[in-house]
Specification:
By secondary structure, this protein is an alpha/beta fold. The protein contains 12 helices and 10 strands. Strands 1, 2, 4, 5, 7, 8, 9 and 10 form an 8-stranded mixed β-sheet that branches. A two-stranded parallel sheet has the order 3-6. The longest helix is centred in the last third of the chain and has 22 residues. The protein is globular, with a radius of gyration of 19 Å. The two termini are about 25 Å apart.
Amino acid sequence: MKWKGKRIGLALGGGGARGFAHIGVIRVLKQEKIPIDIIVGTSSGALLGGAYASGTTPEEMERKIDEYLNSKEYQSSAIRTIEKTHDGDQSLTQKIQGFLQNKFLLLQAMFKPGILSAEEFQSMIDFFIPDILIQDTIIPFRTVTTDLISGEQIVFSEGPLREAVMASSAVPGAIEPREKGEMLLSDGGIISLVPVNATRREGADIVIAVNITRGIFSDEKLETAQEICDRAADITSYYLTDYELTKADVIIRPEVGNLHWSDFSHAGNLIAEGEKAARKSISDIRMAIPLFRKLFAKRENRT
């Protein structure tokens, strides 16, 4: 379809492994021929949005995920170690082993800027993202990051795609911030977990937002100062995100439950939830787009 109407932007939110739901959303938008003129991603939204903007199909992304999760590299990674402590199917011995390994990683955080190896995380990004410039993507693409020095949001529209995605995905405490000139770049979700405003500023007239944050309720035990601080940060982030989402034209909310950001082994279910949520939102999306709205009105008049 040749598109000459208003520019439609897709704002893909962050949330670690929950970002796999974006693949299901993208698959449905593609099947329904919803034109996307620009994609803006935060964190895992930058990773999967960047892959799609570069020409990787949803089917290819799903195949790559299966390949990566079954690789020796992932199975021996620190990310997999963290995930194991959230796996309800493990034996008591396995949980204890995972807990001790996790505590060792957290102890490292007292002496290092990130508990995960930057090289290890970069290899994962390189697996999904081609070595191209942002300005060379097939669909115009932007990544959202946060400069820890100035406290400002930084949106990348040019330069190496892999570097921009890495900076946007540098989860505070987990992955070491990336230095770029005088900036110290970290996860875009610090300021904007679902980059609706950035998508609008980049020229989108209509914004379709995909929110993969967990619900506000939590029954987890809060027994340490760190757990309480983390919970407080989650609540703050939830309400800031909810406020920014009011600026979106359509919000797609896949049912991600209370999955932890490291629960990568749930990829298949998350993709399915993304598809399901997108299907429910298709009529809203069509009504938000003037051309589709006119076609719908004509059909109604004929009946």
